[in-house]
Amino acid sequence: MTGGAETPAARMRKALHRARTSMRKAGVDYFRGDGSDWLALTALLVSVPALTLGTIAQPEWCAPAALVLPIVAGGLLLRPASLLGLYAAAAAALITESAVLDDPYRYGTDRVSPGTILVVAAVGFFGLLIAQFRSRVGVPWRRGGTMLFDLRERIRVQSKLPKLPRGWHREMALRPAGGQSFSGDFVVAARTNSGRTLEVVLTDVSGKGMDAASRALLLSGAFGGLLGSLPPHAFLPAANGYLLRQDWDEGFATSVHLVLDLDTGDYELFSAGHLPALQLSAGTGRWEEKAADGPLLGVYDGAGFDPVKGTLRRGDVLMLFTDGLVETNERELTEGMDRLTGEADRYVTSGFHGAAWHLIEAVAKDVNDDRALLLICRD
């Protein structure tokens, strides 16, 4: 057939395609939290009379308090304005049940009592608070957990250490305070200078756990952008200026910046108020502190950071860590570092592969603080 006329079958296929596309888009928008909540509202409004009929027919199996189920679901799914409509339907259902189940001799404890009304009202009040909080934050419950998971994965990816050439080993372990998923400690790393140089920055943001996680996420993104884009001696001054511009009430941080030549093993260590690193010399079997000079990040402008230099020879190990690993209210810093080196000595003969996590478990397993440990070994 020629011309512009369409057959009924073609028009039907187009209509079905538009309907499928619209439904798919509405479903995606709904689960993203961008679409209307009419579908959830309709389902919950239908459930209210269904529960009412069940209560009237079999009150011993479907108690009047069952109306809290759509109310709880509404608090999680609906916007505040839609939730008020659901509450009106639930109130009408309670009134209907109270009128029908009015005979105390026939229905006994299955009647709508003042306690039932108080329970339903209390659940409705808390459901409205939850809905208002979600509306104010702008993150629906369907996306809230996904967003937190995404943030955690972004921190994990940013903290991933790059692969090193043959003859080198690196590993990092991070344990947030209280078993949480977010930490105020983070690592950013990159291979620069055409892959010949490894730059690693270990930072400890003030605070711990969830309280410091948002600042740690922001700083890890900023520090990751600075790392490799500036000469090594300019990184900490730039990071300090960035932190000062945030003007946070609790905006300081400690940081240590390692610049390691993977060909020669020579390194420079810059510190911003961070704990000294520990280097194991394979020749002597002793641990040596490597402490650089520099103030905390975010305290004052124009700060200078003087590096300490060293060399990792074959069999040497360099440890970078945060204060949660070695310092507690009951344990001084020197005692904690002695304990860390004592536990690390157990891996000298067998090698440090897989040792970072076990060292945290042995030294600071139940400490209520963020703990991070980075190991760089030259085989």
Automatic annotation (TrEMBL):
Gene Ontology MF terms in the entry: phosphatase activity
Any Pfam family matching the protein: SpoIIE
Segments forming domain PPM-type phosphatase: 169-378
Keyword Cell wall biogenesis/degradation: no
Keyword entries, A-Z: Hydrolase, Membrane, Transmembrane, Transmembrane helix
Alphabetized InterPro entries for the sequence: Bact_Sigma-Reg, PPM-type-like_dom_sf, PPM-type_phosphatase-like_dom
Cited SMART domains: PP2C_SIG
Highest rank taxon of the organism: Bacteria
Signal sequence annotation: none
Residues passing through the membrane, by range: 38-56, 68-95, 115-133
Xref: PANTHER family: STAGE II SPORULATION PROTEIN E (PTHR43156:SF2), STAGE II SPORULATION PROTEIN E-RELATED (PTHR43156)
Protein name: Serine/threonine-protein phosphatase
Organism (species): Streptomyces triculaminicus
